[in-house]
Write a structure and sequence with these properties.
It is a multi-pass membrane protein. With 401 residues, the protein is mostly helical. Strands 1-6 form a two-stranded antiparallel sheet. It has a two-stranded antiparallel sheet with strand order 2-3. Strands 4-5 form a two-stranded antiparallel sheet. The longest helix is centred in the last third of the chain and has 28 residues. The chain is globular.
């Protein structure tokens, strides 16, 4: 199906089902219940899940296949965002031209950075990409203020020309981003008993693009090009001795990865039309590294899992404050309640990074393959138990001699 083997087709179907049914899956608790704090089926958060999933998928093509660790991938995310916002300012509020321009400019920028950085490998390559990203951040923050609007960030204004679209609405406000008239903020809410499910147009656009990106990544992984990238990761020196030049392959992987990041940046601007230099900081580059390693570097679905895991912690655990903790432990005597709140407090709210850091450390130590390895171990355990059960049943059914 679609040029994929049965295993990859099944994986694509599973990812598609989870993505398209996310409004139901991410809202397991009734809206008014105490556990509703852990619901994540909000349009803005679901958009972040799939957008950063695209970002991580692209980074995994470079890091997971070739072994080249980039510490500056957020530069392409920022370039994609700036490009998309400029398209909204100058052309129209249609998201398609903005996304295409974001990918194009990010790809050209990746050619420039990759051509220089890929002259080195290992830690030297990582430092070069970090240096380029920090230079890009500082240029966007201060030097290129006519283009980026500096620390304030690039935003839409009533003075924008938008030669192929509305400059203002009938109410005198700025038009919203849309897909041929379908507004990205358009949301349908379905009430089912105590549950509330929201279906957002912007989310489903991002979800469909993520599925296409995931499908392309599968084809890259299974292609001869992907095999060459694995050979580079395995032993680049030996590959060079065979007469093959690895640089065109690594540059192609770098550019493809940069275009994925630009696509993610363009989608971020399409959902919320503004762009700031903070998207190009080294912390954003480090975040996608954590997503890929946490999910499982070199695997297909791992980066998506890692992106969802980190964004869930960032947006859900960070909102848990002392008032919520007291409501959870209110059934206990006051002394025990206050003690438990004091114990849990450092790990939630502003301290969510501490919890994430501990979990990341545990994954690296006990699950080097990330969340994908955890799933594989659980599946293997169930298969073993099923096999043992089948063996016991067959032994009991066998007549005694």
């Amino acid at each position: 199906m679609l040029g994929l083997n049965n295993k990859d087709t099944l994986l694509l179907i599973i990812v598609a089902a989870i993505t398209l049914l996310a409004p139901f899956i991410l809202n397991p608790f009734p809206t008014q219940s105490a556990m509703a704090q852990f619901n994540a089926g909000y349009p803005d958060l679901m958009q972040r899940f799939v957008i950063f999933g695209i970002f991580a998928i692209g980074f995994n093509i470079l890091f997971g296949l070739t072994g080249y660790l980039s510490f500056g991938h957020a530069a392409f995310l920022g370039v994609g965002s700036y490009s998309a916002v400029w398209m909204f300012k100058l052309l129209s509020m249609n998201v398609i031209p903005a996304i295409l321009l974001a990918m194009l400019i990010s790809g050209l920028f990746a050619v420039l950075i990759g051509f220089v950085s890929l002259r080195r490998s290992g830690i030297y390559f990582s430092i070069l990409t970090l240096a380029f990203a920090q230079m890009s951040f500082n240029l966007a923050y201060s030097v290129l203020t006519p283009i980026t609007n500096g620390e304030t960030g690039l935003q839409l204004t009533l003075n924008d020309p938008r030669i192929l679209g509305q400059v203002t609405t009938a109410e005198g406000s700025i038009p919203v981003t849309s897909l041929f008239g379908l507004e990205m903020r358009s949301t349908y809410e379905m009430i089912f008993g105590p549950w509330s499910f929201q279906f957002n147009a912007g989310y489903y656009l991002c979800a469909i693009i993520m599925l296409l990106s995931f499908y392309i990544a599968i084809r890259i992984f299974r292609s001869p090009f992907g095999m060459m990238l694995r050979a580079i990761k395995s032993n680049q020196t030996r590959m060079s001795y065979t007469g093959l030049n690895p640089r065109p392959y690594t540059l192609a992987a770098f550019v493809i990865s940069g275009m994925y990041a630009g696509l993610a940046g363009g989608l971020m601007a399409s959902m919320d039309p503004l762009a700031g230099a903070e998207r190009m900081q080294w912390t954003a580059s480090g975040e996608v590294v954590l997503m890929t390693i946490l999910g499982g570097a070199g695997t297909l679905i791992g980066p998506i899992l890692g992106a969802g895991f980190i964004k869930y912690f960032e947006n859900i655990f960070s909102k848990i404050n002392d008032n919520i903790l007291h409501s959870w432990f209110a059934f206990m005597p006051d002394g025990f309640e206050n003690a438990l709140v004091a114990i849990v407090h450092p790990f939630v709210g502003k301290g969510w990074h501490l919890t994430l850091g501990i979990l990341f450390m545990l994954v690296v130590v006990f699950l080097p393959g990330g969340l994908v390895e955890a799933g594989q171990r659980v599946a293997k355990l169930f298969r073993r138990r099923k096999s043992e059960k089948t063996s016991d049943e067959s032994a009991q059914s066998k007549p005694a001699e």
